[in-house]
Amino acid sequence: MTKKSKNTVTLSTHTTILLETLGTMIKAARIESHMSQTELGERVGVSRYTISFLEKGNPNVAIGTVFEAATIVGIPLMGNEPRQLTKVSQSIANLIQILPSKGVNKKVELDDDF
Q1: Could you tell me the CA-to-CA distances from 35 to 28, 44, 55 in Å, in that order?
Q2: Which residue of 25, 43, 61, 63 lies most exposed, with the fewest beta carbons within 10 A?
Q3: How far is CA 57 from CA 21, 48, 65, 86, 106, in A?
């Protein structure tokens, strides 16, 4: 089953569950840190309503907002240290350099005339 956002983007069940799970993790970490939605919103630079939507897994919350909230409440995303993130970023950049420039598969014509 899929879920549609108000922007008519169709999300898979897997993606919907991931958004809800990350939102719940952020909420739990916020509460554990004795922080209100308003306080987290002020630190992230958004309203408490956006934090509420984020915590419910709303797909219309900007990904940067979600990542910033996760970072503030201490949820590691791909590592905690800037050096770790830089290493991951460099590894991915190196991988991209050796991949073909287009993701299009070339059609191979088989010679099956016997």
Answers
A1: 10, 12, 13
A2: 63
A3: 7, 14, 12, 28, 39
The CA R_g of the chain, rounded to the nearest whole Å, is: 20
Locate the domains of the chain by residue range.
3-98
pTM beyond 0.90: no
Helix (H, G, I), strand (E, B) or coil at 31: helix
Identify which of 60, 55, 42, 54 has the alpha carbon closest to the alpha carbon of residue 6.
60
* Fold observed for domain 3-98: 434 Repressor (Amino-terminal Domain) (1.10.260)
Q: Please give the DSSP secondary-structure letter assigned to residue 47.
A: -
Amino acid in the structure at residue 65: T
Number of neighbouring beta carbons within 10 Å of residue 75: 17
Could you report the per-residue pLDDT of 17-68, keeping only the tens digit for each? 999 999 999 999 999 999 999 999 999 999 999 999 999 999 999 999 999 9
For residues 41 and 32, give the distance between their C-alpha atoms in angstroms, rounded to a whole number. 16
